[in-house]
Write a structure and sequence with these properties.
alpha/beta, 6-stranded parallel beta sheet, TIM Barrel, 519 residues, 35% helix, 22 strands, 9-stranded mixed beta sheet
Amino acid sequence: MKLGFLIAFLLAAHAQAADFDLLITDARIADGSGGPLVQGSIAVKGGRIVGIGQVKGSAEAVIDAGGKVAAPGFIDVHTHSEDICLIPAAENFLRMGVTTIITGNCGHSRTDVAKFFQEIEESRVALNVATLIGHGSVREQGMGGSFIRAPSDEQLATMKNLVDQAMKDGAVGLSTGLIYVPGSFAKTDELIALAKVAASHDGIYVSHMRYETVRIFEALDEILRIARESKIRAEVSHIKLSGPTAWGKAQEVLAVLDKARADGLKITHDQYAYTASSTGLRQTLPDAALEGERADFVARISDPKKKAEIIAKMAEMRARQGREDYGYAVIARCRADPSLNGKTIPEAAKVRRGSDSLEDQIEVILEIETQGGASAIFHGMNEDDLQAFLKHPLTMVASDGGPRRLGEDVPHPRSYGNNARVLGRYVRELKLLTLPEAVRRMTSLPAQTFHLKDRGTLLPGAHADIVIFDPDKVTDPSVFSDPHHYAEGFTDVIVNGGVTIRDGKLTEVRSGGPLRMEH
């Protein structure tokens, strides 16, 4: 009995002997502030950082960083991840260092935030997931299928209640997608009314603005008015200039935003590191053609007069953008005909109709929409503008992507490589940003902007979201023609103290979950 007691005592003493759950040693620490890297260790206990620098003590687990960089887990403020529960490991995000995502962007979200968060908990999601409440989704639920008008007082009250409840349930703000139906039909006063509700909960207003083309200054006027009259923090989603007619105006755009900040508005912006966007192919069609159900669209193009009006509007849209045809658009996912995935619209027209004429390109676009639509990649931006926006100190790094399954469709490579591309191309190769500054744009700046408490920094008391990477080896092998490749150079990823990537391998640990706005 005495021997058994002694063994039990020694085992208990050993279990209590470790000072920390995890100790990361020999790291070059980028703490998220933008300051110089510091050699040292990071100690984690109970999911929080409890020591940093020259840490002494024992640990249940030790990761020897071997001189690699340790940084706060990256925060991707612009994702479309409403389907995160279907792909809970979200490996494409983890493998480029992302430990927190914000979904519900561009006006599209789950409107029952409490239920969404419950599903995230039940699905054992590997990441931290915050959400915005999407204006378009709220408008659709509040107004039904009739959108080309202002809401009635009763409908606006319903929409306000939906936003209010979502904010109470933990949403971080309100998003709009003002190039998408039904948001495109909303007037500014409606947006102000809903933004005021989000502001009352200390939320942020995040907008895919009405125009990103040569008319971008009209859109900037609108977002600044909303921020001013709603007394709300504002965020310009995926800041860009689309179409040749808009190229070269980046400094003018930034000057407008800098002046607004000087006048007292709190406004920031995010950006992905590619000169192509991705959204529904239906964005090549005029908004009025898309009101209602798909059957309504089919009826419109079956009417020769209405079809001619739609085609004429498409011509006006091309002219504003400086486009002669649709060769800049590549089909990413066409459910009705997956053989078109990866093909440009002219190539799809050649396959479907035997001709790549402009007329046949238009017919293919209309035909695809009648059959359920498609997502597409649009090569519409200029590298000089991209770099000008990226250099601005208030531009955050965000993918505009979502969770991906390897080999499925031909999606935009940003969902696999965005953060790696910034660190590899724009930091290491072009030296557009320093490494500590790039890390700040991915960590503390997003956390501060979206009021994510105790995130985005490596400081005692912060949640232990940590990424370890080799800055000399970080790269993004995912490309437009062959997108399904994970980012490289990230060896270890920790979420809330749980090691989800260890020595380059995905573990079974799922330590993420819903990230609610703290009021």
